[in-house]
Amino acid sequence: MKRLLLAGVVLAASIAGSGPVWADPVEDTLEIDGMPIVTQTAAPEGHPFDEVYSGWLFRSAETRDLERDTFENPGMIAVEDGEAMWNTVMGSEGKSCASCHEDASVSMKGVGAHYPKWDADSGKPINVELQINKCLTEQMGAEPLPFNKNGQRELTAYIKHQSLGMPVELDLTEGDMQSWWDRGKDVYYTRTGQLNLACASCHETAMGKMIRADHLSQGQVNGFPTYRLKNGLTSLHQRFRGCIRDTRAEQPKAFSDDLMALETYVTWRGTGLSVETPSVRQ
Amino acid sequence: MASKPRIKVPKSASAGEVITIKTLISHEMESGQRKDKEGNPIPRRIINKFTCTFEGELVFECDLDPAISANPYFEFNAKVPASGTFEFTWLDDDGSVYTAEAPIEVK
Question: Are A77 and B71 a contacting pair at CB < 8 A?
């Protein structure tokens, strides 16, 4: 009897010793239509991790395959809608985006990799969505696009897609960007909500672990707007708000100062990763 | 709103090789079964036929019905005897015809 019990203990120990199945991101390399994409790279100075990983490495093989081929990527339909919008005249000035910026594949190349930027007029960082609205109101005589509506996600995806494969790099020396970065860092590490979670609780401390059925990534934003299998094209601030809602906290408004600071900080955390817009995630 | 169709055909193949062709067109595929806010039926407007030919010879043809979802996607195989061009045609209920073509070189 004692021997049998001992055997049971040994068996239990060996199961426990085999470790979690999903402990780490997968080892895999991504090429989109033959273009190499950096999904893993050395972290910038002052980063809590040694290496930054794209969220792509945390998804299942089937989901990863969808992103390899722009034909299979469901997000590309939105990019095409964004292209149509780029060439559509909007507002009283009779101008489309293309009237001034012409060929987006030339003029918008790199935009997706370097925003948010410093906007001296408002004294705040500005992201692609707000830059579109600024153009609409100041140059085109049109109404600004409401959050997530009237093609804001699609046009943003189209513009960011022009930087596909380029490494994310922010210029924090512009204007007051550094203090917004500091504020974003505060937001990132501040626990909120009834569940008392900070961004860092899941995406830093528990990175690579499972939260119920979900494999926690580093929460990188290099693929936004992203195509999520559960609800289609998803903008960054929609995702921020969704995450914050899940901690059962009050959700800050999209493009509010807190979320703009968070966007600045989180984008910096993905420095060196390639732009993947529109990425495919679960 | 139908935008330009997307097709994927390999640029080259060996003679007699079986290749995979993928096509996708953005289309609402309004079934005719739905009603608008006032309760009036929304008229049917779908792609009702898809055809693929190779140098005039029929490769693949398909009738589409209202139950097919938006943005119809087709993937099929074809044997390529010689260099030539694949032509693709989508017929819309409103009479519009959307076309695309892709050349292939046999080495």
Answer: yes
ipTM over 0.85: no
Domain span at residue A273 reads: 30-70+165-281
Q: Distance between alpha carbon A23 and the CA centroid of its chain, in Å?
A: 22
Beta bridge partners of A228: A232, A281
- A80–B3 C-beta distance less than 8 A: yes
Burial label for A6, CB within 10 Å (0-12, 13-18, 19+), is exposed
Q: How far apart are CA B27 and CA B32, in angstroms?
A: 14
Q: Check which CATH number belongs to the domain holding A187 and give it.
A: 1.10.760.10
Q: Which of A113, A78, A91, A108 is nearest to A235 (CA)?
A: A78
The pLDDT tens digits of the residues spanning A3-26 come to: 554 444 444 444 444 444 455 788
Closest in B3, B4, B8 to A71, CB measured: B8
Give dist(CA A204, CA A187) in Å, integer.
Answer: 14
Which residues form the domain of B89? 6-106
Instruction: Compute the distance between CA of residue A178 and CA of residue A221 in angstroms, rounded to an integer.
Output: 19
Tokens found for residue B29 = 């595929």
Give me the CATH number covering residue B21. Answer: 2.60.40.10
Q: Which residues of B touch A77 (CB under 8 A)?
A: 26, 71
**pLDDT at position A23:** 57
DSSP label at residue B43: P
Judge whether residue A227 has pLDDT over 80: yes
Contact between chains at B6 and A84 (C-beta distance less than 8 A): no
Tell me the helix, strand and coil percentages in chain A, rounded to 5. 40, 15, 45
- Does a structural domain hold residue A231? yes
- Asked if A82 and A154 count as a contact pair (C-beta separation under 8 A), the reply is yes
Rounded to the nearest 5°, which phi and psi values hold at A50?
A: -75, -35
Whether A243 sits among the annotated catalytic residues: the reply is yes
Per-residue pLDDT tens over the stretch A136-157: 999 999 999 999 999 999 999 9
CA nearest to A224, candidates A171, A170, A168: A168
Q: What chain A residue is nearest to B9 in terms of C-alpha separation?
A: A71
Retrieve residue A280's tokens.
């495919």
Q: Hey, is A83 helix, strand or coil? A: helix
